[in-house]
What we know:
Helices cover 35% and strands 24% of the residues. It is an alpha+beta fold.
Amino acid sequence: MNYRDAGLSDSEYEKIKEILGREPNELETALIGVMWSEHCSYKSTRRLLSKFPQSGRHLALGPGENAGVVDCGSGWGLAFKVESHNHPSAVAPYQGAATGVGGIIRDILAMGARPAASMDGLFFGMPDSGKSTALAEGIVEGVAGYGNAVGVPTIGGKTFYDPCFEGNPLLNAFSCGLVRLDKIVSSKTARPGDLAVLLGSKTGRDGIAGASFASKELDTDNRESRGHIQIGDPFEEKLLIECCLDLLEYNLIASMQDMGAAGILSSSSEIAHKSETGIEITCERIPLRESMEPWEIFLSESQERMLLIVTPDKFEAVKAVADHYALECVTVGLVTDDGRYRVLRGKELIADLPIGILGDAPTVDWPVKTPPDLDSRRAKPKNVKSLDHMRDLRMLIGSVHGRCREDIWTQYDCQVQLRTAVEPGEAVSAIMLPDSDALVVFSMEAEPWKCRTDPFSGAAETMAQSIRTLALCGADVLGMTNCLNFPSPENPENFYDLSECVSGLAAVCRDMGCPVVSGNVSLYNETPRGGIYPSPLVVTVGLVPHYGYFVSGGSALPGDVVYLTGPVLASLGASRWQVLCGESAYAKPQGATSPYDAKMEEEFVLRAIASSRKAGVRSARVIAGGGLAVALAKEIIDSGVGMEIDLAGLDPTETLFGEGGPRAVYIVPQDNEEKFIRVWEGFPLTRLGQASGTSLVIDGIGTLSMDSLRSEYFGGAEH
C-alpha cells in the first residue's frame, strides 16, 4: 500500500517522514492514513470547532471523550452525542443506518451510561424519486430494526426532503444515556501495566477502511463501496451493553472505548494518546472470523466490540462476567510507559510509531472564498404575495415537509424501558429522570434551505429555534451536540459556508449560555450530481424541573385566547412558503431568514420559561416551518378545536407564512390572561383571536374546516 492509496497527500507523507526520521513501512502507512483521514482527525475543522463554547454551569464533561455529559441534578448525568453514518447509508441503507445506531449507542455506553433513548435526523431526496424512496425506506427500516431489537427507544427526530439529497441521503444518529455522576468512565485513565482487552464480536473484513470511505465523495456506482459497510447484530449489542454495565457496577475496568471508526487502531491509540501512555497490540491474540492481514485487522470496523482497559489482577473476574454473557473476552495488548504504538506479529515488531503521530494529525487550512452568488441568494424573493392564502396553507400542511410523519415513527419502539415521557410527533422529545419529578427534554433541528441562502443567519436560526422550543415547553438549557453535514471542504465556497455556519451556531450558543458538549463532522457529502446544501443539525438538551411545568401543543379548549409572542412579521426568505408556494412550484431556496437578535432571543427564553411556571398557559407552539399559519393549523388538528383569527390589517402573507426570529403561538385560558400579559410585558405581544368552533377562520382571508386540515395533514389516513 503506497501513501496515496492510504489517502495521504504528498505534503502529509513528507511530514510523516520528518516526524519518523525514516520511511514508514506499509502497515504504518495504512495506520497513519486512516487516523489522518477527515473522519478520524477532523483536520479540516478543528480550528473552526474551537469557536464553540465548551463550558457551562451544567457541564460535567465536555468534548474530548466519547460523548459529553451534563449534570441533570439528583446525582444524575446525561451522556449524549450525535454521529453521522451518511456514506454507509447511501450505499447499503439498512445496514448503514443500523450500524449508525449501534455505533452511537456504544459511544454512550463507553461513558459508563446506560443508553436510554435515541433520535434520528433523516435527510432524503424527493419521494417522487424511486431511488430516494428506496433509500429512505431502507434507512428507516435499519434504524427501527436495530433500535427496537437492542432495547433502546427511538423517541423522536427530524426529517427533511430536498433534491440535493438525491443519491446522498444523510443519517444523523443521536443517543443519550443516564449515568451517576460519580460513575462516569473516562478514556484518559489507562496506566502502564494495564491490559488491553477486546470484548465482544470477532473481527472480520466488514467495514475495513470505513473511516477513509467516509472521507471522500460518493461514486456514481456504489457497488465497490459495499465492502466498507459494517454489519450489525443488535442482539449481540444488547449482551455487550449489559456485560459492560455489570463490569462497571463491579468496578472491574479502568477505562473503556468503543471500536467505531478505524476499529482497534482508533480505540487503542486514542486511549493511549489521551492517557499519555503507549500501547502494544499483538495480532495473533485478536479473535478473527477469517484469515486476515495485519492492516485489515487494525482497520476493520466489525461491530459490537469494545476495548477495555483492565488491571491484571481483575482480568479473570472480567472474563467470568463476559463468559456469563457468552461474549469473547481476550487480552490483546498491554499499556506501556514509552509513548509508542507498537504492533506485534508473533515476536516480530511490524509497526512502531510515536503515539502522537496517530492522535495529532496536522490541520488543513483550506482556502476560503465568498460565493459570488451569495448576494443573489440572500436577495428578497420576488412575488411574495399569496394569491390564495388558504390554498397555500393546505399545500403546506399536506406537503412532504408538513404532513404527519407517523409512517416513520410507528416503525420505532418508543416505549421500551418505560422512560419515555413525550412520544414522537411532538415538537420535543422527553424522558423521565430517575429518582426525580424532572423531565429531560430534547429538541432536534436543521434548516438546510436557510443555511444555503445565508449560512450565518441560517445556522443561527437553527440553533436559536432549538433553544426556543425547549424554553417554550419549560426547559432550562443544559447543552448541545451537533452534526455538521457539508460537501467537500476543498471547494473554497463550500468552506466559506461551513465556516459561516459554525460561526452562526457558536454565536447563539455563547449568547444563550449553551455549551457544546460533543459533536461530529461529516464532509464530502456529494456525488457527481453535486453537493448537498449546508446542513448542520443540532440536538439541544434541557431540563424541566417538574413535569407539572411541562407545556406542549394540542390542548386548546373553546373560549381560550390565542396570542402571538414576538414580532408579527417575519421573513419569507428560504421559507417553506417561498419554496413550495412562491414564484414557481418547488423553487430553489431564495432570500435570507430573519436576522439573529441576541437580546430578543434572551428575552423570549426568559419569558417562555416564566410562562410555563407562572402564567397558566394551556398550550404553546414555536413558529417554525410554514410560519404562523401552520402553527395554528397544527394546534387545531391536535386539539380538535377551531380558531377565529383577526390579522387587523397586517400583511397576510408575511404574517401567516414568514419564518425566523423568536415567535410563538400561545393558547391561554381567559382567566389567566392578565398573568400571561404581565409575563410578556415589554416584549411584542399580539392578541390574535379565540379558540372556537371546528374551523380555522381568518377574518378577511378565508376558512378551512378541521376535517380539511386533518385530511391534508394525515394524507387521507384514517384517524
